[in-house]
Write a structure and sequence with these properties.
The chain is α/β, with parallel strands linked by helices and 401 residues long. The protein folds into 2 domains: 17-266, 3-Layer(aba) Sandwich (Aspartate Aminotransferase, domain 2), CATH 3.40.640.10; 268-400, Aspartate Aminotransferase, domain 1. 39% of the residues lie in helices and 14% in strands. Helix 1 runs antiparallel to helix 3, helix 3 (71-84) packs parallel to helix 10 and helix 4 runs parallel beside helix 5 (121-133). The structure holds pyridoxal-5'-phosphate (PLP).
Length: 401
């Protein structure tokens, strides 16, 4: 920040994480507004024809067209990049636009991708169905099994994709170990960090090359807007692959959504802390409950990878999944009896939301594939919100009967 005389008062490079979330990337206009400006404009004007020529030649860097860049979107990108310690951030229109752009911009026919199998449904569609149509070989592994990664990465590979914790079973993948194997095979690693949020886990520090987010989830945090982001320190990838792909295919974030997201970042740290506190409380409550056969929460010691989870995440995450005895009928009965917690496939919202993955988010999978990834008919995923946790437990209690 600079004062009116242009003298530096505080050095942004020295700001701690919580300060960056509130102030990172802000650029005030001539009106000196407190809150980040919303620049709802698609174009920009040039004083002279020569200025336009220079901009198009790349001799000067300036705003030209909002498909390329927009001041409100830039503030969101800079704030998120500072939080991750990333050189570059590109905001996208949705999380899926981020996943597709991050993969498609760097792959071509004949390339090979290795990915964990337990993925968000749409990510699995891109990797398992869309990329092979372009002549790209894709190999799926059990993300928790390092031997399977080792085997799959024993030959030259261009790209590795993984999600940890995974949706909906909250499996944990050893990011550092997989990155080491991937780099030996010549692959760049993309981590879908949505479930961990930018507050709990920093994959770039663990060796990942690219991170992607659905900002729709915790970054917005109140279920209003769609958005996503790609972050990296790999300047080759950013300049040669991502930038031209992004500019010319147009998965651009709207300035309005970017404005909601940049304001969302200001409260992300406090919200995620409360989400995690409530989630642990709910997970502990469910663990002792009759009629529940399994509780999956990385913050519980009973989680099969609790130690790994705690070594790469600062908390147990905001989502709890659990299995209700009695399959689909029992799970539906439970969901339909809930009075406070809403049935919704969204997550990371201030409101607690719950879904039955087997019939919603993971409906596209064959019954065999669902079982292979632990998605039984009794499994319920709960995105724990910011309500008073006693009200949440009361609602769960009456719905469990
Ligand atoms: C929601 C989600 C996505 C996709 O993001 P959208 O904003 O819905 O396009 C990708 N990965 C994970 C883990 C998600 O939860």
């Amino acid at each position: 920040m600079t004062d009116k005389t242009g003298e530096k008062k505080s050095n942004p490079a020295k700001w701690r994480q919580r300060t960056r979330l509130v102030r990172g990337g802000q650029e005030r206009s001539a009106f000196e507004e407190t809150s980040e400006g919303l620049f709802l404009t698609s174009g920009y004007v040039y004083g002279t024809a020569d200025e336009a020529e220079k901009a198009f030649k790349g001799d000067v860097e300036r705003y030209m067209y909002s498909r390329y860049a927009n001041p409100t979107v830039t503030m969101f990108e800079k704030r998120l990049a500072q939080l991750e310690g990333a050189e570059k951030c590109v905001a996208t229109s949705s999380g899926m636009a981020a996943v597709f752009a991050a993969l498609a911009c760097q792959l071509q026919a004949g390339d090979r991708v290795v990915s964990s199998r337990a993925l968000f449904g749409s990510c699995l569609y891109i990797i398992d169905e869309q990329l092979p149509k372009f002549g790209i070989e894709t190999v799926l592994v059990d993300g928790t099994d390092l031997d399977q990664w080792k085997q799959a990465l024993s030959q030259k590979t261009q790209c590795v994709f993984l999600e940890t914790p995974s949706n909906p079973c909250l499996e944990i993948i050893d990011i550092r170990a997989v990155c080491d194997l991937a780099h030996e095979a010549g692959a760049k690693v993309i981590v879908d960090n949505v479930f961990a949020t930018p507050v709990l886990q920093h994959p770039l520090e663990l060796g990942a090359d690219i991170i992607m987010y659905s900002a729709t989830k915790h970054i917005d945090g109140q279920g209003r807007t769609m958005g996503g982001a790609i972050l990296t320190n790999d300047m080759d990838f950013f300049e040669e692959s991502l930038t031209p792909f992004f500019r010319h295919t147009g998965p651009t974030l709207s300035p309005f959504n970017a404005w909601v997201m940049v304001k969302g970042l200001e409260t992300l740290d406090v919200r995620v802390a409360r989400h995690c506190e409530n989630a642990l409380d709910v997970a502990e409550y469910l663990s002792g409950r009759k009629g529940i056969t399994k509780v999956l929460y990385p913050g519980l010691e009973s989680h099969p990878q609790h130690e790994l989870a705690m070594s790469q995440m600062s908390s147990g995450s905001t989502i709890v999944s659990f299995e209700i005895d009695g399959g689909k009928e029992a799970a539906f009965g439970f969901l339909n009896r809930l009075g406070l917690i809403d049935i919704s496939n969204n997550l990371g919202d201030a409101k607690s939301l719950t879904t039955h993955p087997a019939t919603t988010t993971h409906q596209r999978l064959s019954p065999e594939d669902r079982l292979a990834t632990g998605i039984s008919d009794g499994l319920v995923r709960l995105s724990v919100g910011l309500e008073d946790v006693e009200d949440l437990k009361e609602d769960l209690d009456q719905a469990l009967g």
